[in-house]
Amino acid sequence: MPPAPERLRPPEGLWRRRVASFGHAFRGVWAALGSEVHLRFHAIATVVVIGLGLYYSISRVEWALVAISVACVWSAELMNTAIEALTDLASPGFHPLAGKAKDVAAGAVLLAAIGALVVGGLVFIPKIFTL
Ligand SMILES: Nc1ncnc2c1ncn2[C@@H]1O[C@H](COP(=O)(O)OP(=O)(O)OP(=O)(O)O)[C@@H](O)[C@H]1O
């Protein structure tokens, strides 16, 4: 195996290593945003939901529920992207287990999205229809 590129070698010092880990994590989100259409859709949906929350002045608890829902969808989609990439690396050809891994990962996104829709509906529909 070729040596790791210089930027992937862990820097000296606890805090430098922590900061580097954050850098890797943000690079992961950025890379997924660049390659995954679904994530760009989530980004637009997140901006719309924040806009609705500000417009309707939702409560602190409602913001908390919305934030958890948004974070769950983003986390599930990022995990799905990672599992898809690892599956394609480990099993470039057809394999039933590869298909199962991708289907289960996609199922996690689906459940998170349904939960977010339920929360969004419970928070915003009463406000929209009482105007
Ligand atoms: N190597 C494989 N072996 C068996 N089945 C696979 C394999 N790769 C993909 N599949 C099947 O095809 C489906 C779609 O896979 P694909 O990699 O195109 O993901 P996707 O759902 O289109 O996600 P995205 O749009 O994010 O790429 C999977 O959910 C799985 O059922």
Automatic annotation (TrEMBL):
Transmembrane segments: 39-56, 63-83, 103-125
UniProt entry tagged with the keyword Membrane: yes
InterPro entries in alphabetical order: DAGK, DAGK_sf, UDPK
GO MF terms held by the record: kinase activity
UniProt KW keywords: ATP-binding, Cell membrane, Kinase, Lipid biosynthesis, Lipid metabolism, Membrane, Nucleotide-binding, Phospholipid biosynthesis, Phospholipid metabolism, Transferase, Transmembrane, Transmembrane helix
Membrane topology listed for this record: Multi-pass membrane protein
Protein origin, superkingdom: Bacteria
Cell compartments where the protein resides: Cell membrane
Record keyword Lipid biosynthesis present: yes
PANTHER family on file: DIACYLGLYCEROL KINASE
Family of the protein in this entry: Belongs to the bacterial diacylglycerol kinase family.
Descriptive protein name: Diacylglycerol kinase family protein
Organism of provenance: Hymenobacter negativus
